[in-house]
Amino acid sequence: xxxxxxxxxxxxxxxxxxxxxxxxxxxxxxxxxxxxxxxxxxxxxxxxxxxxxxxxxxxxxxxxxxxxxxxxxxxxxxxxxxxxxxxxxxxxxxxxxxxxxxxxxxxxxxxxxxxxxxxxxxxxxxxxxxxxxxxxxxxxxxxxxxxxxxxxxxxxxxxxxxxxxxxxxxxxxxxxxxxxxxxxxxxxxxxxxxxxxxxxxxxxxxxxxxxxxxxxxxxxxxxxxxxxxxxxxxxxxxxxxxxxxxxxxxxxxxxxxxxxxxxxxxxxxxxxxxxxxxxxxxxxxxxxxxxxxxxxxxxxxxxxxxxxxxxxxxxxxxxxxxxxxxxxxxxxxxxxxxxxxxxxxxxxxxxxxxxxxxxxxxxxxxxxxxxxxxxxxxxxxxxxxxxxxxxxxxxxxxxxxxxxxxxxxxxxxxxxxxxxxxxxxxxxxxxxxxxxxxxxxxxxxxxxxxxxxxxxxxxxxxxxxxxxxxxxxxxxxxxxxxxxxxxxxxxxxxxxxxxxxxxxxxx
Length: 507
Ligand code: NA7
Hints:
Helix content is about 30%, strand content about 15%. It is of the alpha/beta class.
């Protein structure tokens, strides 16, 4: 088959191409944040730290691309703007911003879940004489903060990584926080050679473990319940996990933390206690402590010295829920309470997650129905990989699949393999098209919502819920049932002749 990949950036990397802000690092550990299909590279590659930094991941992705000689099928600096389905020809007609038009039998979106920046426009911005940046579109040449007054807006995963780094060189950093965040230590460190050797000796087992796990992370989940644990056990378990660092703090401690409010209060109190013990100024600590939504239901960041950074003389915190931003001035930001000087404003304000990147392309299916209109009340998909009325359109890590709740390479590989097998099945079975049935899609979407509603996740105004974008429907978008269960379901669907899909015979 002929394959053509169109990419908006001038190189590969996606998230790791665009997010070059200081401190940008993956929260999955290096040893399992990689592809499983290059066994030579898996052995040769040396990750320098426990968690991979952005430059190292980008280097890895470029290496994979070159090793597989993929660049000949890639077209860079080209954004796909529209795709419409021609029902007579049974082909997708695709438009790009460089004037290239093409027709293709199969259309696969690999647009990412967090690639459309949420960049609020603040009143008065036109008068600002300094520079503004969004973490998700960072200049390739980098930004110097030396001697600068810097303002940063947003304390999600990106802000929490960038703040400690920027604080080290800026003359002064003012953090504008709308919602305090729970964050736990990453405990990043140089790669331990013994750990690396152990992984390399057992890579096949580790990979398999990741594939059948809940979040694509190959470590055992705890089945203990915090509500059944003694005070002593809770403290010891949380302290140990806090010291070890990483997501093990959520899944490796107790199984009920995001299932039950009473259980959640226990862990939330522990983290708030940590904030009190780290942050020296009690007024600042009080502002940093999250209340009002359950721990772990907004994407939990991993940090390196985040709370510690607020003990620095050159860092101050502005709680914009109490004193909202009224305007940007020529030399800073004015809130209802005062003026804060800035030469540089960094927007760490996140993304229009999951549906945003798909809606950036004007996708029209059968009968000219726009994907955006079909999903006006929230995404409807079958398995997160397809949607009724849009034959031969496959979405890698689309809404309704584990995607952002998982270690992404595991989920990406699973989708790519499933789509590859599906296209193979069509061609060998002499079928032209595959399309999810309305019924299968309704049932799957209802299932995605039903399992989310058994957890505390829908209680937070998170980007998982679309709550960070004005007017976006509040629907929990990713599939929370676990990558292992999800894989099983996808495999069963394929094994039963693509149950829940209509296939048409070749004309
Ligand atoms: P997030 O997690 O969406 O965080 C964005 C932050 O910006 C968050 O603190 C928001 O506050 C804040 N925000 C957003 N819009 C505004 C406006 N208009 N004014 C003030 N503050 C605002 O994005 P990240 O880039 O940090 O992380 C995205 C994902 O990338 C991350 O979860 C990982 O999966 C990797 P809010 O909480 O909405 O009140």
